[in-house]
Amino acid sequence: MEQELRVFAFNTGWFQCRPGYFIAGETGDYIRGPVPSFLIDHPKGRALFDTGMGVRYRRDRADALPANKFGLEWFEGMEIAARLRAIDVDPASINWIINSHCHIDHCGGNATIPNATVILQSRELAAARNSEEPMLYDSADFDTGHPILAIDGEHDLFGDGSVRIVPTYGHTDGHQSVIVKLPGGDVLLAGDCCYTERNLDLMVLQTAVVDAELGMATMERLANLRRQGTRIIFGHDGRQWSTMRENAPLD
User: May I ask which residue range the UniProt record assigns to the signal sequence (predicted)?
Assistant: First the structure.
């Protein structure tokens, strides 16, 4: 019997910030959001959607971020290579890395996945290479010597419609998401085009967007997909993540 398409969700770290960074205009105490990565296990190959943060954000538990500080962190065993090994998947067996974009918390683990081809929107690759913002784009994360497949617009990864890379511009010039057809229905892995479910409920962007008009067009697309029954897994939603099962296939 042929293996079914499966998706595994992992939290590869934490993103801590004020609510207003996630949802423009909101106030309150600092909150912690996950830094997700997803294994897409297809009969024709394996892909990762995002790879989390690089080693410079590793912390010991005794040196965790204070509750009132903006920042990124991960602890031993949370990095994507370790998360894969925890479910008996060799990082060297990954064929593709689909980076939603090239910010430091989405491609920092690329270097630990040695044999993959990286898939990026060509406009995102150009933006990353031309950026003068090292706190967002660091070439150590995205220029790792991997083969790169630069695409423009939608891309059917396995040619059967089951894993579609779709442009979701706004947060960055070339942000992309993935729609996976699972037995229980379509799942959209949002990345940073929509940080939390509350953003979509309110139709309010996060603070960090390079093009608000494109960002709102993306939000409208997500809202339409949600109305049609697509399940959306948001980019940094701590509340949603508390309901997720890690190390097991998504339902």
Answer: none
What tokens were used for 68?
A: 């009132």
Q: Where are the domains of the chain?
A: 6-241
pLDDT in tens, the chain (251 residues): 357 899 999 999 999 999 999 999 999 999 999 999 999 999 999 999 999 999 999 999 999 999 999 999 999 999 999 999 999 999 999 999 999 999 999 999 999 999 999 999 999 999 999 998 888 999 999 999 999 999 999 999 999 999 999 999 999 999 999 999 999 999 999 999 999 999 999 999 999 999 999 999 999 999 999 999 999 999 999 999 999 999 999 98
| Number of residues that make up the chain | 251
Q: DSSP of 185-197, one letter per residue?
A: EEEEE-GGGS--H
CATH architecture of 6-241: 4-Layer Sandwich (3.60)
* Half-sphere exposure for 140 (CA within 13 Å, toward CB): 10
For residue 92, report the phi and psi dihedrals to the nearest 5 degrees.
-70, -10
**What φ, ψ does residue 58 adopt, rounded to 5°?**
-70, 140
H-helix or E-strand containing 76? none
